[in-house]
Fold these 2 entries.
Entry 1:
Amino acid sequence: MKTIGRRVFVKQGALALLAMGLPPEFLLRPLLAGTGRGEGRRKTLICIFQRGAVDGLSMVVPFAEPAYYRVRRSIQIAQPRRGADDTALDLDGRFGLHPALEPLLDLYRRSEMAVVHAAGSPHPTRSHFDAQDFMETATPGVKSTGDGWLNRVLQDTSCPDCSGRTLDDPAAHAADHAVGQVAMASVPALRGIAMGSALPRSLAGAHPALAIPDLEALGVAGGDPMEQAFQRLYRGEGGDEVTSAADDAFEALRILRGTDPARYEPANGAEYPRSDFGRSLRQIAQLIKADVGVEIAFADLGGWDTHVGQGGARGQLANRLGELARGIRALYDDLGDRMEDVVILTMSEFGRTVAENGSGGTDHGHANCMFALGGGVRGGAVLGDWPGLEPEQLYEGRDLAVTTDFRDVFAEVVSGHLGAKHLERVFPGYTIDRERWRGVLR
């Protein structure tokens, strides 16, 4: 039988993950990070992926466009009318929020929410799988990219002593920290988290990141006796890398348990949707307020592929938009003054056709809209160059045209908010257009 060296064991993960229900890299993560406690409040980016291609023309309605009403007979959102229900919520005389997004209107009026319209990918694909992959790697048209854009942000901002170098060998980098060759305190724990059973493509890569299906269920299967057995198994007497990794791993587990998710009470009267999405946002808020070092948090909300029976002011899409709005507003209110240090960014792989189809829905399109919220956001505005909806203005004669590359928005947020410096590494093969793009941050 071949003997597995301890260094290899640390690099590859190993047995503990089978009992802990944690990703294989979990034992490595604490080696690459301190606890995050006592280091003060951090800047945090919360990404919400509307997976399935939301209809951006219903999210933010271009009610000043006659073409919108000509081609959307049954699913259109009526122009704003004072005192009327089920109409668009006027933002600037040209665009209005879907009425189901009313919980967000006050944030827009307080200049703490911005809309980026006609944003998206320059790649023409209408495949959900490809478009999601291209957005999460931030390399449209390139299928060979090995890591996600958020992981590259973590790499770039991870370690001042490493000069932002890519972590090509996480185990070697961890060993450097463990023996004091690199300042341990510069790498906070739990920097990248995703609420779900698996890491999203955007957080996959060389830098450790943690997928958390449910904080309340996090731990070693079998309870305290099993956990104690694993601690004995992985604690050697030589104080080597595996011992250090195990000690730090279980310490990180204790930190997460210490947030006491079952007893968490949202602040400021925040009421999250009673759904997986609501629970995800609630637990993100809890981790941020617990100061465990979260810098990037990720949550999914699906159900946006409305080919049939999309509905207008009410119906299938309205119900999903209502869940999105209630969740974001609860998160915003729950975090309170911490939103000065937080940006919430929404995204979806592409938009939907301008015209409705024969089934009362919309098909796969091109450009879409994004939301940015937070104290540092240049809110109260619909940003981006609006291309128009007349037939000659449409992409391929059917879709809203892309005038803002989604990478320009991503880049501004991660550089201006999180301090990423090497944007050529975070967005390989793309030059950020700082001159043309007006920006979402103050």
Note: The chain has one domain: 6-426.
Entry 2:
Amino acid sequence: MEWAVLGYVLFSISIGGWAARRVRNSQDFLVAGRRLPFLWAMSLLFSTWFGSETILGASEAMAHGGLLAVIEDPFGSALCLFLVGVWLARPFYRLPIRTFGDFYALYFGQWTERIATPLMIISYFGWIAAQLVAMAQVISHFSGLDHFYTIPIATGLILSYTVWGGMWSVAAVDLFQNVLIIVGLVVLIFFLPMGWEVKLSELPAGFLDFFPPRDSVAWLNYLAAWMIIGLGSLPQQDMYQRVVSARSERTATIAAVSASILYLTVGLLPLIGGLFVRIYHPEWLQDEAGTSPILRLVEGYMPRSIQVLFWGALVSAIMSSASGGILAPAALLSENILAKWQRFSPLGRARFSVLLVGLICMVMGIYERNVYELVAESSIFSLVTLFIPMVVALHLQRWRSSYGAILSMLMGVTGYYLMKIIGSALHPLWYGMLGAFMGYVSGMIVEKLQKVRDNAKHATP
């Protein structure tokens, strides 16, 4: 089985290498020349978050806490893709920009972009490092090598095609790998014993409740779970990059809505696995070794000859998320920070940025073994800093303010982390959103007062 998984990984890399032949310039590298057809675009959007967290993390969360523990993913993720399709795909596609950092420069000025771009770049590091750690764990499982060696191997495998083919390679590999993800998860559910659903009545009260108790704090925390990825991943470079890679705005719109439906459907399969573990093997949830319950489910119920399908699905999900994740901050680094670096061509600069981001995240993965805790932080970080300025820029032209956007970012992140440190029964996300709103309003008022004062000064003879 080890050789079969290795062969699958090498075949995936060869697909990425084949797709890299289409790269002629930086636009091909960063957004596939805006030429992806529907199926490629839908697959690319579906792969945005469908990584180790959905297959391993969501199944374990479901086994421990029931449906209310998995609102963030897959339900919030599916919501995000749906909102992209019905709300943002068309305006995103029409924007005269190359990166989402340019979005803030276009509407709020260069200083806002100089603050927004580093915030976006930093927010990706935890997410990417988590994928590299997951990939390294798979390599360790089959090879027996130490984590210190498997992280560089995992990074090298993913960079081997991403650094040359960019978005074309990511899209091609995603299209192939998503087929295996779906097949692997369906086969896992197929091998579970028939009729196990009759024991659902033995679950604890409220385990399958989709809505929280009638309590204001519980409902606000429930809404926060929907918002973390559902809204927090909207003002992000990877989302913008995947949308504009489609060959038309209509293709982008339909692809996003279709990806939302597919994500929700396929995302339910790991939850079924987690539910089965809770009913028949609750002792697995006390595993001090930290082995994921769904991995034990695979080893216990799938024939060894078929297990390669699941391992292939898991590796597929990790590689898809990691390669696309690396490309997003690399685009921001290349186009918004290193753009004045004339020694390299735009394409060379983009490839260098991919390599640099990959190496930084590799180091994080080596020295931070609990990096999974940073994954949700990525979306929360962008929600409390970038979401309100994005909404104002797109829909409230009269209220656009560079001071407001900057203060919104700074007060949003301050409010969130301050309350996270202090502690509160209410999710600190709400304090971050309140700080972001108050920051925007305060900055807008200051800017308008300054304009009034400047106009009065110029009017004085």
Note: The mean pLDDT is 90.
